[in-house]
Specification:
alpha+beta, seven-stranded mixed β-sheet, about 25% strand, globular
Length: about 270
């Protein structure tokens, strides 16, 4: 299920990656604006969004689209199918030029993340999953794209580690609750990294926990959720309720956590 949607989304993110890296590597194109909410916007955000939206509209005209860089159309609420898109997740990391940014596409069906694709333009890593079919990594998505979609594909699985937990956290968005969680649980193994890469690290067994207390948006979590869950992990809201998508309010106001195994739920 979702085979066609998954293949198109994989192509979309790689094409978006090409557009992003053109700007990333060109000083003349590298400029930063600020939205009304004071979040940064670059030419790469716009170019990536354009590439993705044009393809999704063409291939799936009957599906709704919710994208960070598109004017929201609440008619999507009447559609069971909704692509949830972040054309450039980690714009602050892009601006810092540290490579820790991604392109995220998910498919929400009846408010649940059924398919997720995450591409890392700076490294070429291509993560993807669909409900019931597992989670996978192609090490070089650019080569996969050029080589008639042929590549070595690695199936992902979370670790079973329950001690000396490796905690991923944001490079740019700290908070007092996260500091307290780390102190209360004597966590010393901390990996700071940007964007949806945090969920990818847990999905491939390189970390165990990620807690996010600050608000995020649907497009920050939708693709990551499917990839983590299909690798055997868990993504829930901080109050342990399910995360849903294609909502009227796209803000994830409750926060969320990602863990490899249920025993590593650190909040009572």
């Amino acid at each position: 299920m979702w085979t066609n949607e998954l293949e198109v989304a994989k192509e979309c993110v790689v094409l978006a990656g090409y557009e992003i890296m053109k700007i990333y590597q060109d000083e003349e194109l590298f400029n930063v604006e600020y939205k009304t909410n004071n979040t940064p916007l670059t030419a790469a955000d716009k170019a990536s969004n354009k590439a993705i939206i044009e393809i999704l509209h063409s291939e799936f005209p009957e599906y709704a689209i919710l994208s960070e860089e598109e004017q929201d159309n609440l008619e999507r609420l009447n559609n069971d199918f909704c692509f949830v898109v972040d054309p450039l997740d980690g714009t602050k990391e892009f601006i810092k030029r540290n490579g820790q940014f991604t392109v995220n596409i998910a498919l929400s069906y009846k408010h649940h993340s059924e398919m997720g694709v995450i591409f890392v333009p700076a490294t070429g890593e291509l993560y993807f999953a669909s409900k019931g079919n597992g989670s996978y990594l192609i090490e070089d998505g650019y080569k996969w794209f050029k080589n008639n979609k042929i590549a070595n594909i690695r199936r992902l699985s979370v670790s079973n580690r329950a001690a000396d937990l490796r905690c991923v956290m944001s490079s740019s968005h700290g908070c007092a609750q996260m500091d307290a969680l780390i102190n209360d649980n004597d966590i010393t193994n901390i990996i700071k990294i940007g964007s949806s890469l945090k969920g990818c690290l847990i999905a491939k067994g390189d970390a165990e926990i990620y807690y996010r207390f600050n608000p995020t948006m649907e497009w920050d979590t939708a693709a990551m959720q499917c990839i983590v869950e299909e690798a055997g992990g868990f993504l829930r809201q901080i109050d342990n309720s399910d995360m849903t998508y294609n909502r009227e309010d796209s803000c994830n106001r409750k926060g969320f956590y990602i863990i490899n195994i249920e025993e590593n739920q650190l909040l009572n």
